[in-house]
Design a protein that fits this description.
It is an enzyme of class 2 (transferase). By secondary structure, this protein is of the alpha+beta class. The chain has two domains: 1-85, no CATH class; 94-216, Heat Shock Protein 90 (2-Layer Sandwich). 57% of the residues lie in helices and 15% in strands. The chain has seven helices and five strands; from the N terminus they run H-H-H-H-E-H-E-E-H-H-E-E. Strands 1-2-3-5-4 form a five-stranded mixed sheet, with helices on one face. Helix 1 (2-53) packs antiparallel against helix 2 (61-85). The protein is elongated.
């Protein structure tokens, strides 16, 4: 029995390491593409926009206005694609401010409350990127599928770990029926890559959903495999 337990623990750790390596490889490629779009294409579009503003169209103001409108749309699209690939500015502004920007951008679709308890310390960039992605994925799923009007995000640091709770007041879901969906898979893969543990609070229809995540301070070295 002991030997089986050791083998099981080794297999779990191996799977977590694979998830970590896979997510890191994906994020590196996403980051490369996002930076290219943000810094190269985005800057070129901005230069073109400035050039267009100084262009003498000899009275063709309607043409100038239409081109300028299209250019602005392209700049917004480039920025949106860049952010969807990788949160380019997260490293400089941090998870909390970046999440607040996401909330502001979604305020016309759903009410989101972010509560970060006093004492929160900035985390490793990899962890903050994964948490941002999880919040983004959870929020997207809620907006698309749950008919929720409110969503709550709670973050608190403890001496040995960090707790993140995300919940909503939507119609809820049956985990066994949706666990194979890409949204749930993406969230759980990112949780595994941080060597974190999680629990989907038992959901009843029309009672919303809740995800509880506990991330060890040193995410490379997990010391447990479940939440009590």
């Amino acid at each position: 029995m002991k030997e089986k337990n050791v083998q099981h623990e080794a297999e779990v750790l191996h799977q977590k390491k694979l998830a970590l390596e896979n997510i890191k490889a994906q994020e590196e490629e996403r980051k490369r593409m996002a930076v290219m779009i943000h810094d190269d294409i985005g800057n070129r579009l901005n230069i073109l926009s400035l050039w267009l503003n100084n262009l003498d169209t000899k009275g063709d103001e309607l043409i100038k206005k239409n081109i300028h409108s299209q250019m602005s749309s392209l700049i917004d699209a480039a920025r949106s694609i860049s952010h969807s690939l990788y949160p380019v500015n997260l490293e400089s502004v941090g998870l909390v401010l970046y999440a607040e920007e996401l909330i502001a951008n979604l305020s016309h679709k759903i009410n989101i409350s972010l509560q970060v308890m006093p004492g929160y310390e900035k985390k490793d960039l990899f962890v903050e990127v994964q948490l941002y992605r999880i919040i983004q994925e959870f929020t997207t799923n809620v907006i698309k599928h749950s008919n929720a009007t409110d969503l709550w995000i709670y973050i608190k640091d403890y001496p040995q770990n960090m707790a993140v709770i995300i919940s909503d007041n939507g119609q809820g879901f049956e985990y066994e029926e949706v666990k194979k969906g890409m949204g749930i898979k993406n969230i759980e893969s990112r949780i595994k890559s941080m060597n974190a543990v999680h629990k989907w609070k038992k959901s009843f229809l029309n009672k919303g959903s809740r995800l509880i995540i506990k991330i060890p301070k040193h995410y490379e070295f997990p010391n447990q495999n479940s939440i009590d």
